[in-house]
Amino acid sequence: MLRFTGKRFLMMLPILLSISFIIFSIMEFTPGDPARTMLGDYAPQEAVDALREEMGLNDPFIVRYINYVSDAVRGDFGESYRTGRSCVSEIAKRFSSTLKIATYAMIISMIIGIPVGIISAIKQYSGIDVIAIMSSLLLTSIPPFWLGLMLIMLFTLTLHWLPSVGSTSWKSFIMPSIAMAAAQMATLIRMTRSTMLEVIRQDYIRTAKSKGASEGWIILKHSLRNALMPIITVIGIDFGNLLGGALIIENVFGISGLGTLMVTSVKSKDTPMLVASVMFAALLSSLVNLLVDILYTYIDPRVKTQLIKTH
Amino acid sequence: MKKRRTTLFLVLSFVLCLMLSACGSATSDTQASDAQGKSLGDRVLRDRALADAPTYDPFKTNDVETMLVHYQIFESCFFEAQDGSYQPAICESYEFNEAGDVLTMKIRDGVKFHNGSVVTPEDVAFSLNTAINSAYTAKVTSAMDYAEVVDGNVVLHLKFPYASAIGCLVSSNCAIVPKDVYEADPDAFAHNPVGAGAYTLGEIKAGEAITLNAFPDYWRGEAPIKTVVKLIIPDNTSARMALEAGELDIMEPASDYTDYEQLNNNPNVTYYKKPAAVFYCIGFNCDNGIFTDQRIRMAIAHAIDKEDLILGALNGMATPTDAAMVMMNPQYPEEFEATTYDLDLAKQLLAEAGYPNGFSCTMRIIGAPNYTKPAEVIQNQLKKIGIEMKIEPMERASWFEQCYTGGNYEITYYAHPISVNDADFAMYPYFHSSGAGGGTNFYQYKSAELDALLEAARASTNENERKDLYKKAAEHVRDEAVSIPTSTGWRCMVAVNELNGVYADPMIRYYLYNYSWKE
Questions:
Q1: Residue of chain B whose Cα is closest to the Cα of A95
Q2: Contact state of B55 with A166 under an 8 Å Cβ cutoff
Q3: Minimum Cα–Cα distance from A269: chain B residue
Q4: Residue B88 forms beta bridges with which residues?
Q5: In this predicted model, what pLDDT tens digit does every residue of B447-503 receive, in sequence order?
Q6: B 401-420 residues inside an 8 A Cβ radius of A
Q7: C-alpha dist (Å) from residue B454 to B139, B261, B392, B429, B480
Q8: Distance CA B374, CA B341 (A)
Q9: Helices (DSSP H) in chain A: which residue ranges?
Q10: Strand B360-366 to B388-394 pairing
Q11: What's the pLDDT at A106?
């Protein structure tokens, strides 16, 4: 298991390197000059040229990229062109909000999505099943932006229950988490329903029933555990995506997270900040997927055995 | 068993709702007690910001949002009063020399910085020189040469006689900072600023909120509102809902006025508006392409119905503008003959230019609603004279690189914003030939006659003479149709009724010091 984990960590390096190269290239070849953006339209061209020289922007692309990577390996991800502060500290300030919303959103989507999916599978073609399917379609179709605004209209403007903006208290995270959870919830409902339907038709389930096992025991002990693998996969992928930040939700609710940081970096051609934040999001995503793979071994012992044989 | 589970579920749901409503009541109660329980001076003012301030170094920014915070923390030699006049601040009195290129300022005694030290002439001279040497502040310091202390006064030398110098000194880019603190560590200063303004910088929650606390020793007396929290809310709809929910006290509404009806009809808030310090215009590349022909430019000028444009694109919330300067500029001509709307004349001019059946062209614009909507109306209007205009929205950085500095466009629609209320700012950068070829004169228009008018106007210290010169300059721009001014929008502000001193500042230069809660 340790060897497996170690190998996976090593595999992250080329992924992160590729991402950094892609982002660097995109920022290099898209229009806009960070020096001009910083100095403004009225700054004389000589001043812009001098700032470009100071920032090293006149160096060849490959030289700048190699310098960036060699610094990054030592933990120095550079300073933001826009704020002059360390990219790592800027990301750290914003990550806690993103982590909170992503975590709450996943918890909400799991608490609702999985049970509803199970019930929908057990009561296939019933009224509950139809409602669950229609709800998941609705949740997938609703734009998060619109849902966020509707939640604000209901819970802030009409009911005065929750604050609409900021992250001053735990109440501030309820609506953004719900808005973010909607699409994930829909996916989990459908995925859980689909995998449960496959599993409950298996012979061992029929055997368990014929042996007199209770329905609850059959669902939780026999069916769900076998259906969990694809569900866990989806949860891992979704959580990894959520950790990268959700710009729209952050904008609507005035929460400063990774999504907003990335977009601001793009707009201001802040290459070091953008590369650092995208790499960070990619790292998180990779770590989550690694955790999911490790979790597989606990859910399905056959996976562990296979891993041991291979590694 | 099933019934018990259902009952349990219903009971739990009910309890959850009760808990949430209790939390909600607490929130409302807290807000209510904030509003009523505390003394008026203690009531926090909740303002809205579009983005956080990347730096608190006044000499290293030209971002409007950042400068809005800087105006509260820093004091300059002058400040702008609500009526738009410039009043002495750190400078107590001033005098220009006869030539108009040297400004002597007597510094007010006893003005304190936030760290308790007193503002000295050396601090003022140092600050002005730092501003002058900074590339970020070129917009307001390009006419300044250097500052020095002479006999206890600060003497500012200008590169040429410049009537707008006082207006430039109002800018937060010319803020006065303590020399010893700034020189010791400019990088640290950028995160922990020390100014002489009405507010000190308090807690910052990156990307979410900036807190400002009233400075007790402010030279004009402590601000009536002791604490201001600027909540960072990028989305206009969210901000409006926060205002309506009582989470915000003041905000600038959407710049495309889509929320005007809703906010104007809200009995709890007041909607303030004033003509903005910016005008929009159709611009032509006068150096390259089909629009080098003045007749074609004039044809388009005669085909634009400005009232129709304002109604169609801006819901009527703008004023037609004829002279190529901001309407609030003191030099804006009281009577100015506008280009007539005359489709027959337009077609005739096109025929003379060799395009009796019209032609095709592309308008490259920034892909934002304040440009795309008018562009669509213009497109329809030009169809009437046979011009098929394609609209190409671009990302802002692309437009600046390709059109503004690159000159790679035929026709465009853009704005002339100003940072000092003077026609020089509206005209000189955009029409003087020194700005062509990659500078601010993105029309690439060169005219010795226009240059002479603009140079004479900026150097003159006689206001009547300046007014006359700028009128002639505007007539030149009109007759040559270098650009076609179309409209001046509104600068708006929305605030709760309990807030006094609110106004819509055309220059987006708000001093929170002016605000107070109604008794």
A1: B206
A2: no
A3: B397
A4: B78
A5: 999 999 999 998 888 889 999 999 999 999 999 999 999 999 888 999 999 999 999
A6: 401-402, 404-405
A7: 17, 41, 33, 10, 16
A8: 17
A9: 2-29, 34-39, 45-55, 61-73, 87-122, 127-141, 144-151, 174-200, 203-210, 215-217, 225-243, 247-253, 258-267, 271-299, 301-310
A10: parallel
A11: 92
Check CB contact under 8 Å for A42 and B438.
no
Q: Give ipTM to 2 decimals.
A: 0.81
Half-sphere exposure at residue A179, Cβ-oriented, CA atoms within 13 angstroms:
28
Write out the two tokens for B483. 């650009």
Spell out the domain ranges in chain A: 2-73, 87-310
- Rounded Cα distance, B153 and B173, in Å: 21
- Give yes or no for a contact between A258 and A98, defined as CB atoms under 8 angstroms apart: yes
**CA distance readout (Å), B259 to A13, B48, B140, B255, B264:** 49, 16, 33, 9, 8
Question: How far apart are the CA of A33 and the nearest CA of chain B, in angstroms?
Answer: 8
CA distance B276 to chain A (A): 20
Residue of B5, B208, B243, B424 to mutate when probing chain A, most A C-beta within 10 A:
B208
Residue A47 tokens read as: 């001043």
3-class secondary structure, B1: coil
Domains of chain B: 2-54+198-259 (3.40.190.10), 74-187 (3.90.76.10), 278-445+479-488 (3.10.105.10)
Confidence (pTM):
0.84
Per-residue pLDDT of chain A (311 residues; tens, 9 = 90+): 777 778 877 888 888 889 889 988 988 888 788 888 888 777 777 888 888 888 888 899 999 999 988 998 888 888 888 888 899 999 998 888 888 889 999 999 999 999 999 999 988 889 999 999 999 999 999 998 899 999 999 999 999 999 988 777 888 889 999 999 998 999 999 999 999 888 888 888 888 878 887 877 777 777 788 888 888 889 988 888 888 777 888 888 888 888 888 888 888 888 899 999 998 888 888 888 888 888 887 777 776 666 666 65
Residues B75-88: pLDDT tens digits?
999 999 988 889 99
- Can you give the length of chain B in residues? 519
Between A and B, how many CB-CB pairs are < 8 A?
143
What's the CATH code, domain A87-310? 1.10.3720.10
For the stretch B213-245, pLDDT in tens is 999 999 999 999 999 999 998 888 889 999 999
Tokens of B379: 């497109």
CA distance B58 to B66: 9
pLDDT at residue B421 tops 80: yes
Reading the block at residue B378, the tokens are 């213009």
What's the mean pLDDT when you consider all of chain B? 89
Nearest to A144, CA basis, from A288, A241, A232? A241
Residue type, B179: K
- The length of chain A in residues reads 311
Q: Are B402 and B394 in contact (CB under 8 A)?
A: yes
Q: What share of chain B is helix, strand, coil (3-state, %, to 5)?
A: 40, 20, 40
